[in-house]
Amino acid sequence: MTNFRFKALEVTLARKRKSLELPKEKVSTYFGELTFNRDAMREFLTQEAFQKLINVIEKGETIERKIADQIAAGMKSWAISKGATHYTHWFHPLTGATAEKHDAFIIPVEGGNAIENFQGGELIQQEPDASSFPSGGIRNTFEARGYTAWDPTSFAFIMERTLCVPTIFVSYTGEALDYKTPLLKSISALDNAATNVARYFNKNVKKVFATLGWEQEYFLVDAALFRARPDLSLTGRTVFGHASAKDQQLSDHYFGTIHERVLDYMADFEYEAHRLGIPIKTRHNEVAPNQFECAPVYEETNISVDHNQLLMHLMEKVARKHDFQVLLHEKPFKGVNGSGKHNNWSIATDTGVNLLSPGKTAASNFQFLVFMVNVLKAVDKHANVLRAHIASAGNAHRLGAHEAPPAIISVFIGSQLSATLDDIEKQTKKGKVEANGFNPNIHIPKIPDILIDNTDRNRTSPFAFTGNKFEFRAVGSSANCASPMTALNTIVADQLTEFKIDVDALIKKGKRKDDALFDVIKKYIKESKRIRFEGNNYGDDWLAEAKKRGLENIVSTPVALKKMMDKSSVKLFEKNNVLTERELNARYEIQLENYTKKVQIESRVIGDLAKNHIIPIAIRYQNTLIENVKGLKDVLDSKTFVKLSRNQMLTIKEISEHVEEIKDKVAEMLEERKTANRIENMEDQAVAYNEKVMPYLDVIRHHVDKLELMVDDELWPLPKYRELLFNK
Ligand code: ADP
Ligand code: MG
């Protein structure tokens, strides 16, 4: 018999450190060398085209055909100088991955030769035959055309000798078929709304940017062990596996010394990332064994989202080179921490002010409070929108599953800020505050300077203020950040628009501007109070408390997804011109279908593995026990036999019980699957998969994991947790 587990272990144990050829130069010498960045633009474009492109990037101007041709020609020369042979539009379809279709630069010319060609038209727009991308019913096959259109704000880059042009992806009728289109619209909505509010404080503000810095968590598993686990290969997570005697109890992995094979891997993908202009800065071991994290310096959200998608791709690609498999799944292993992608988010003005950073003066603190309170109010009003846009089959294992963070959306702001807000809420008469050039008759609360390096942290909160930004921690590790960021930008944009209406109404009634601003935030602080939670988000107390406050605890993924289609959500996205009802519905359907399919695949995998891998091995082992007992009976007198075969007999019996249970449950699960498959309504089908099929996964696993502890280690076919989690 071939036991792939032992073969895989042998390969893994024999791994040697690969000698890595990374350049000796400083990172700054090659940072961004594979991007068509400003330096490259300046070098390869005419002065006219360069200036025009900058205007397009910075001011959103449109491009005439002539200039587009010039830019394309420059981009082509640059790409060829870097060894590129092909070009592609690179986009984020709703599959969650990124998509590319490569075309060669060459076209044949007379005389049997060829020339490299790349025109403005090819740069600006393409029509990929993309009928297999999910469209959620938006694009019927008879109008299967989808268009990709250049996003000039994100630098073109070279990967695998291919010039990649970041694009949006829309249907023939202009509806979004990707993640980037609504993201860009939400960024613009937020820009408009936030600029209007920022101008209460500084008339020179012309633009407000949303900034994003993600922290990407991941696991690494040796490639040989990974391949010996069909569940990992097919679903991204282990559907079986008894806990290792030691895993993360001692917290000895967190921030520990990085193992050299892992470090080689990190250095390699960071090198690739830096060449692509991705500003990766931080790397460390995470809490669970073989779990790690990396994070870049934050960037404008659209760029940061592109960079995260690109990085996830690089991480997978480079891992193969190092005989690792990177696991981006939210919960690859039961019983140890799952992986998230903390989205650190803030808003900043073109005058260089981080609007979520407390300032040194009363005036800037006042501005900070205005934005901070509006975020609180937005999250309170639209918590379900955020919940809906982080829901996925993988993330369901984190949210609401006794793991960080919970499914209840709340905001942590720290004790000082809480005290400040409480204080404002209670202020009734006007107090004097020293303000430079500011109306001294208003009660601008003084925020302690110490807040700037606030170390007040609450690791259990799904949405935490961390001194100068909010950290949305409930995002799943494999997610495209665009979706949660689109949701966040939109709810805040909507809120800021409302805020301006409220403030202007008071001003119209004769209130002074500062008083009007203050009165409205005071009102908002009161109204949004329930969303603030400073305590332990994992505790059962919080479940009860949240319920009392009327905060929803949506554990089910199909239910969470459905919140996308709530009237208030549809109104929100339509009003802010981010997504239409039809587009939202398409997304909703795609997510639902994705959820159903993922559970379906897991259910099949668990059924197959249980029947073909686990049960035969359990029975084989049981047979050796039976043989043994029979032998004992032959050699022992009957009294001694009864005494000494007691535990063996018990094990034989227990194995049969587990085997029977597994067989029964697999059969029942199959029936539930068949029933679910007959359901035509997608919503009901997803709910059936969640409520009827999903529970079997846990039950079957329970029995298999018990068998793992009983069966001879020599026979067990799947790499065990201790092998997957501790080998490097
Ligand atoms: P932590 O203590 O949570 O690890 P870090 O300071 O290391 O915090 O930052 C984590 C991420 O937050 C990094 O990607 C960082 O660039 C990002 N970040 C910092 N400031 C901002 C900001 N103003 N807007 C968005 N992201 C930010
Ligand atoms: Mg952080």
List keywords for this structure.
alpha+beta, Creatine Kinase, Chain A, domain 2, 24 helices, 16 strands, 728 residues, binds magnesium ion, Ubiquitin-like (UB roll), 8-stranded antiparallel beta sheet, 6-stranded mixed beta sheet, Four Helix Bundle (Hemerythrin (Met), subunit A), binds adenosine-5'-diphosphate
SS summary, helix count: 24
CATH superfamily of the largest domain: Glutamine synthetase/guanido kinase, catalytic domain
Decide which structural class fits the backbone: alpha+beta
The residue ranges in which pLDDT falls below 50 over 5 or more consecutive positions are 430-442, 446-453
The overall pLDDT average reads 91
N-end to C-end Cα span: 27 Å
Please explain how this structure is put together.
The chain is α+β, with helices and mostly antiparallel strands and 728 residues long. The chain is 49% helix and 11% strand. It folds into 3 domains: 148 residues, Ubiquitin-like (UB roll); 392 residues, 2-Layer Sandwich (Creatine Kinase, Chain A, domain 2), CATH 3.30.590.10; 133 residues, Four Helix Bundle (Hemerythrin (Met), subunit A).
